[in-house]
Amino acid sequence: MQMTLTGDIFSHGFRPGETVRLTKAVSAEGTTFQSGAQMEIEQVYDNTVDLIHQETQILMWVRPDEIEKLTSLS
């Protein structure tokens, strides 16, 4: 049986375990996270991405256009 990583099959290119930045404010569990907040991707789907905020352990989902990959500052 062959398995494929979930992130490989979606056009947005996000993968579980990546650290991303919010491009707009998002509210979850009574907390608002501002644009620029860093989150870790838990799971990816075609139209949504599940994120976790590492400091608070709050889980949330966003659309792929509400996050961006972090770029290295080299």
Write a structural description.
- With 74 residues, the chain is mostly beta strands.
- It is built from no helices and seven strands.
- It has a five-stranded antiparallel sheet with strand order 6-5-4-1-7, with no helix packed on it. The chain has a two-stranded antiparallel ribbon with strand order 2-3.
- A hairpin with a 4-residue loop joins strand 4 (38-44) and strand 5 (49-53).
- It starts with 18 loop residues before the first strand and ends in a 5-residue tail after the last strand.
- 15% of the residues are buried.
Keywords:
74 residues, mainly beta, five-stranded antiparallel β-sheet, 7 strands, 0% helix, 41% strand, globular
Short description:
By secondary structure, the protein is mostly beta strands.
